[in-house]
Amino acid sequence: MADHSPANLSAAHVLKESAFSMSDLLANKQRVCLLDELAEEELSPEDAERFDWIICGGILGDEDTEDYVAQDRNKGSEELQKHAFPLRRIGKPQMTTDTAVISAKRILEDGKRYEELKFADSPTVKISAMESTDIPFRYLAKEDGTPLMAPGMVGLLKKQMEEDDDFF
What we know:
- 30% of the residues lie in helices and 12% in strands.
- With 168 residues, it is of the alpha/beta class.
- A three-stranded parallel beta sheet has the order 2-1-3, with no helix packed on it. It has a two-stranded antiparallel sheet with strand order 4-7.
- The protein is elongated.
């Protein structure tokens, strides 16, 4: 299995630099996929032949979906949807943007189906011997079942918890 850890993503095809503009995307909008948690179709390996670009970011799951929909979606997503890009989703639970990017790569380039991906939902992350925190997002799971997180994430969580303790 290829190493898709955050440290090795710079070599992934989905993250290679390319020179294109929004005009390029609009001129080829049927070749652009907008990931949207409300889409009816899952992203699939067959979509690799259909799409050249994937747009992801923002809310990619059902966390606070009712509030999200009630607010007529956020302005960025609303703006993108005006262009009628084809929509796909990667499951219902909300995932981090980096998880969505890695998942899209595994589906489109590695040929995995969504159902074949292993996830860690709302993982508990140990910060110290006495502290842990629950993360309310979906992460891809490593072989041992632990969440695949960006390097330094646990350190950032620890720093945030220390800052929150200083507040009280």
